[in-house]
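Record now logged underneath.
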Amino acid sequence: SIYDLVFFKDIHGVYRGCNKNFAELLNLPKEQILGRNDYDLYTDEIADIFVSKDQQIFKDLTPRKNEEWNTRNDGSRNYIETLKTPYFGPNNQLMGVLGVSRDITERKLAEERLEENERLLDIYFTQSLSGKFFMMLDHPVKWSQENQDSPREEIYHSLKMNRINPAMVSLNSISEDALLENTIVKEVFTDIKNHKVQNLVLD
């Protein structure tokens, strides 16, 4: 789940306030967070990053957004999205940095799984010994159950090959540019109109 974690650090990097969600992220009661700094709560490597970014905010006096893995003292890890902004007192005096974070670990892991799947698909596609290709419509086609012939015809004429693998080029003895031309697609795959497109739509 995604929820906001709020914290406030003074100009010396000491935590002066936080909400319950932030305390739960660190798996510590608030009393053991307030009055301590990043080096008390995180590994030195992570603390160095946090302190460096805080100092940059104090220098620029502008909000900053960043994402990073957070390793807690118990060894567990969370991927955190944080918006930090300089905090000013009543007399426009710089008091510290206010941070609002979200635990986006689930989203990050899903993105990494998607990237890995795309990487494996690309390896399979480019190294396969059989000809493979991707085709897409060059514009949306509205399907009608009452009149299927017209959209099926439009689909056929709108199909364009947008990617082919090396084996496809080798098997057809045609250049990649030629294969990507719509006219060549229709000549090479003449059965698409009456069979493949129909099966694709009806299935």
